[in-house]
Amino acid sequence: MSPEQIFALIAALTAEPDPNAFATLKAGGADPVYPVTIAPCARPVAPSEIDGKTVICGTVAVPFDHRAPDGAKINIAFNLYKAHSLTPAPDPVIYLHGGPGTGTVGKVAKTVGYFEHLRGRRDIIAIDERGVDASAPEMDCYATLGDQLGDVVETRFKGLEMAPLEHDFIEGCLAELAAKGIDTSLINTGQNAMDVPAVMSALGYDSYNIYGISYGTKLTMEILRQNPPGIRAAVIDGNAPPWLPLYSMFWQSHSAPIQLSLSPCERDPVCSEAYPDIVARTFALYETLAEAPVEGPNGQIDPGTLWGVIDQRVDVTGAYKAITPYIPLMVTQLEQGDTTIIDQILSGALPPTPSTSSAEAARAAALAAGLSNAEMAQVEVMLSAAAHIEIAEDTVDRAARQLEGNLDAGARDTNLAELFDDRLAAAIRAMPDQAARLAVGRDYLDLRFEEPSAARLVTLIETHMTGETAEALSGLARQLDDAEVTRVFDLIREDNEATVQDVEGALQLYLYACQEDFADGWNSSKKFSQLMAEDGAWGPLMQEAIVDMVASFETACPLFEKHPRENWTTVGSSDRPVLSMNGELDTQTAGVWGELAVQDYSEAQLVMVPESGHGTIRFSQCAKDITAAFIEDPEGGLDTSCVEDLRLPVMLPDGTMHPLPY
């Protein structure tokens, strides 16, 4: 961040709000059928965004059941990020997140970071889909969680598996939601799809583009099936078409990366001669290692070790390791009992560290280039300056977040609320008896049900604490005014969010998957095993191990009523421009599913991106450029040639690198 940018950030944070900014939304939105309520964005927002200036957040009230528009409502939370252009295009991009579950509205800076390449000319909208995080506050099962708080804390403390608790929690939570009168059958993809045009209408957009990732692609395909007006184009990235029994096909998410990334070797004469039938041999190696692990100087190499190396070239965070060039030689060596390459991979020696990755790497590269002492002195000056810049940027970021927080507190006049909450939390942590901590924690959580009141805080303190601690906290509670008491109760919700997410996160996934995808035998462990055996890529020992991927659904889904929907598993069609993006290394949604997703789409384009995982835009500038070009001109010719440059070479047995075809 330059000095000028820092000056502008300070000015933006401290300036009076612009009454004309987002005026329509502040006045209730563009469509009275779907009223908008503005709310503060989840903190931190600064330094990358300024609440009310570059981004605005809130909710849109939509029908809980779109077939009964005059009935109950559900609030869909949104973030709206302004385009950087002063003359933006009229059609924004709405991001539909994956899961289902794990929303995006609470991650203000992280969410839009994926779409900065589209934000130059277009607004970006992110929502939490119905039943998920900020779009489901009334669906929190606090009573059930309170009853099981001891088990939750014990499980988290000991690092135990959550499965038994998860089962009990789901059962209790479903009963609690039913008692509240919440119809969980309406938390489904069909209703979810109808929320999207309603939200866009409320925000004032007549035309818009969709960018769906993972479950967001499934949701996009349902929107395209319903075909509401206003859709200009759609990008589906990491495809999960509902007309595939995906939960019975997770095995393919792990076999396809092997096939897609190693098949170029089989198409190349030099590589295929050096490593004949390398795809089949790689699958066979898993079976061999299961029966006879290879002993190496750094320990045993078994199927789990091999799985970790090959499968974790990418992960869900967007991390990437360029290991593909070494896999054919690694497989060949392991077949011979040699662990040289895999040991180098496991130790971090392979792939080589780029000279630009750190100060140490840059210094080593400079030394290797034979620079003189005087030249190395200049290198050290530059590295020192780089370190100071990094420290300064971190300082600016932290100071901006602190300033934002202080300004928030000043606007609310609730510093005393934060002080009380901090001291209460410290007092609970200091209690030596675990049973006592759990008891106060349970009652603390139950305050979410109550109207904010200083008397309730005093009762909590005096019930569970004694002596000077109780006296000091009770005195502080009695000093709180109404606004500060309300803020304390808000903090109670925030303070316990991590605990809620631990046991409630899976519920959001199961609400969709169990009601829709596990109805009428569309998915099951039996079908998983059958399809995997018919495919034949994985051997029998790995098939036996991999089938456990669906076990948690087999446990949870019998607790849910099934609500199969008409045409849910029928292949969808559309004449809207659609771009199907797929990563060869995607271990969540197999790259080969992308072609099946658009098989009946008349205006679809298909792109397979080498060395990319789930959500291709997280892994390469090439993917960002392709999607940006498509959004700019969905019906024009799309230049995808940059993907060819992402194909990595292969290391031959003599240690040289050989280029491979796309």
TrEMBL record:
Domain Peptidase S33 tripeptidyl aminopeptidase-like C-terminal: 560-636
Source domain of life: Bacteria
Keyword ATP-binding: no
Keyword Hydrolase: yes
InterPro entries for this protein: AB_hydrolase_1 (IPR000073), AB_hydrolase_fold (IPR029058), Pept_S33_TAP-like_C (IPR013595)
Pfam families linked: Abhydrolase_1 (PF00561), Abhydrolase_4 (PF08386)
Domain called AB hydrolase-1: residue spans: 92-252
Keywords carried by this UniProt record: Hydrolase
GO molecular function term, any single one: hydrolase activity
Protein name: Alpha/beta fold hydrolase
